[in-house]
Specification:
Layout: E1 20-29, E2 32-46, E3 54-61, E4 64-71, E5 77-84, H1 95-111
Antiparallel strand pairs: 1-2, 1-5, 2-3, 3-4
């Protein structure tokens, strides 16, 4: 686990698409500041180490895919932890979200009621 709390160290960050990261974000509520983690798969990294560099992290929360785009040099980000390194053969892994949506659609097709089956009218306990 490697932490990058300083802004100067973020230029030297070596994480790419396919890595699993935990991004700690500062959230201010009612005058207090707390840290909140967003852990997931890096599916894209854009603009290298420029001031406008961003990276996209995807996680599945409650069966729903959530993607967030983080600016690399944002002061809101406290630190970035690399949890797992995985070799990806693509620079952008946008197909991951399309593949997940396709699998959900397949599952929903199998759950549809057949027209010949009677619909239960009483609740099953």
């Amino acid at each position: 686990m490697i932490n990058w709390p300083d802004m100067e160290g973020r230029e030297k960050i070596d994480f790419r698409a396919g890595y699993t990261v935990r991004v700690w974000q500062k959230i201010s509520e009612k005058g207090k500041t707390r840290l909140q983690a967003f852990e997931g798969l890096v599916i894209a990294r854009k603009h290298g180490t420029e001031p406008g560099a961003t990276f996209t992290v995807r996680k599945v929360s409650g069966g729903v895919g959530v993607e967030r785009i983080f600016p690399l040099f944002s002061p809101v980000i406290d630190k970035i932890e690399v949890l797992k390194r995985a070799r990806a053969r693509r620079a952008k892994l946008y197909y991951v979200s399309q593949k997940a949506a396709r699998e959900v659609r397949k599952k929903l097709k199998s759950y549809t009621l057949d027209e010949t089956e009677p619909v239960p009218t009483e609740p099953v306990a």
